[in-house]
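User: I've been trying to design a sequence by hand for this structure and keep getting stuck. Would you show me what you'd pick, starting by listing the structure so we're on the same page?

Assistant: Good idea, let's start from the same input. This is the structure you sent:
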């Protein structure tokens, strides 16, 4: 039995937004998106054929392209807030590693 990915299997920046078996309904959904939404469509067959629309905001980009000085930002925080942020980042990194292990594909955050 197959499964449908929440994130597009070829591009993790695209998330599941719409599912329907009728291609005309898929097209109708796509034309209704704003100009800042990028779209990828994937056909799946689990018992019967259906289409999944994955979307991503065009103005976004990979995290690695963001110019951000984490050390400087942490230095401005109180010690309590700094501890919370660092722990959240550790959890996020562990979750990314787990996701990569489960799907066998590096995650582009």
């Amino acid at each position: 039995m197959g499964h449908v990915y929440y994130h597009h299997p070829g591009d993790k920046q695209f998330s599941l937004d719409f599912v329907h078996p009728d291609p005309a309904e898929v097209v109708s959904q796509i034309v209704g998106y704003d100009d800042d939404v990028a779209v990828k469509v994937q056909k799946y067959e689990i018992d019967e054929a259906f289409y999944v629309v994955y979307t991503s905001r065009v103005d976004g980009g990979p995290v690695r392209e963001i110019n951000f000085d984490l050390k400087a930002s942490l230095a401005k925080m109180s010690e309590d807030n700094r501890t919370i942020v660092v722990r959240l980042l550790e959890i996020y990194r562990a979750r990314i590693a787990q996701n990569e292990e489960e799907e066998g594909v590096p995650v582009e955050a």
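That's my pick for every position. To get oriented when you compare it with your attempt: The beta strands are 7-8, 11-20, 37-46, 48-57. The mean pLDDT is 83.
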